[in-house]
Task: structure prediction
Amino acid sequence: MTALPNSIDDTLKLLGATNYLADRPLATVVFLALKMQRPLFLEGEAGVGKTEIAKVLSAALGRRLIRLQCYEGLDVASALYEWNYAAQMIAIRVAEAEGIADRDRLVTDIFSEKFLIRRPLLDALTPDPDGPPVLLVDELDRADEAFEAFLLEVLADFQVTIPELGTIQAPQPPVVIITSNRTREIHDALKRRCLYHWIGYPEFARELAILHARLPGASDRLAREIVAFVQALRKEDLFKLPGIAETLDWTSALIALGADRLEAGVVADTAGVLLKYQDDIAKLDRARIDGLIKTSQAGLKAAE
Result:
């Protein structure tokens, strides 16, 4: 288990050691979340590295990563705990066969820890010899408001109440990362319990550095042309702009095709790697692709 960083600079180094190149504002809020033991609420477009923060912190700190993927209809049984009903029924049948008549003892036994199935939230509150885990509550905006309200108790006191067992409180708070793509607004009551940060699209230099760190096999020329093209593409009127994840995927695809520079034909053929909606892909006709390539490469020459 790695010690927590002692400064913002240490946090930048910690994240950078796992090839996550954060800017200083993001490193600052991560440092504060760790120092103050507060949940970190990250909003931003899909593919900008929100979820990756939790993965990187887990790897860098040597902590277990527990991921709760949110979705519409997520309930307490799926997020917190449920009882192993099949095993409980077997225990009841065995007790009946053995002639055990003490009902209170049987009830106490079947509602004990050994029949409890721990889901992510309860698992994150359980003591761990390697230190408090990293709890990722991913895409909270996809869950219902009722689940969001339930989450308040967990974030306020890092405890949950199980009627049959009582209140369970974490001896040490887990590192909590909550993400949202902002498909709906999250209530202020939850945000007040967290430190907040918006992760936007990176500027050219940082996106280029990320690409080189994650895909060192890409030539500098190809990497610069890719980043410049993506940056220009983000200025277009598209339904879903490409994030850093799409930049990396597209670079991997171009490397696999043996491309050493951007050409309109290759861009058109691989547009489905970079864009995820047909309407957006349809907008990238040959003329627009040529225009974007010229604009991005002109910007590169001007910057040199």
User: Anything to note?
Assistant: The chain is about 50% helix and 15% strand. The mean pLDDT is 91. The first strand starts at residue 40 and ends at 44.
